[in-house]
């Protein structure tokens, strides 16, 4: 006869099924029986982290590591939690230690690369993802990440070649198409870039970053109506995307639709009141609508501030 499942085993099943509350309850019950079990302590921390309770999670990870300092998964989880709480450098050190303890763990190297890229430490991030690719050469994800950091360092041709390798492994991996499209656009191959970005959008239609890049590429090709359609869909997916609202407003202005532009700009400024680009174009939209006094007030106030858009507003005020 099989022995009944333990609280830990039941907690893991709940956890795998997405029941974080049930998993937490069972992990806590398991701790009552085994208060110094580092596996339970780590699992409880992970469930809490997934619930957004990162500070609590750190406490449980640290307790697990007090009992077993060489447990790589707890080091990895602690590093990610610390980084998410704002201590990115502390997170990097914990995740780096996890790679030392588990040198065959692709996830640890991938997470290390992400944190290093976040800090702008490009050579170290490249080294981390290079190792991840070596460990799992059949997975397109680390190759795509490696291409991302190589592109960030300006080596666009090399990055594009690596993305083609990733797509040879999985031609339906949307992030590789999206990154390839962005690189092609930067290199000036707008048509091919639009093609790659469209492929990425088809594979991952709710990816707003891909739609934003595609809209920019379409605008560069003069396909403003298509760009406006992409931005409209992006805003349906993410109504708080202030930058996309400003981009859409610019297209409305170019098409002689200042009222529609003003609607988008007012909503953008509700989300990001200090967006100088939105303020500048709001002044332009008001002017196009014949509301000259309001337009001048908006532009003068912007001109009295600092930054690129303040300079442009000052030029417009002077020219008026």
Automatic annotation (TrEMBL):
Keywords, ordered alphabetically: Repeat, TPR repeat
Domain of life: Bacteria
A Pfam family the protein falls into: TPR_4
InterPro entries: TPR-4, TPR-like_helical_dom_sf, TPR_rpt, Ycf3
Keyword Manganese: no
TPR-type repeats, residues: 4-37, 38-71, 72-105, 106-139, 242-275
Record's keyword annotation contains Cell membrane: no
Protein name listed in UniProt: Tetratricopeptide repeat protein
Source organism of this protein record: Amycolatopsis samaneae
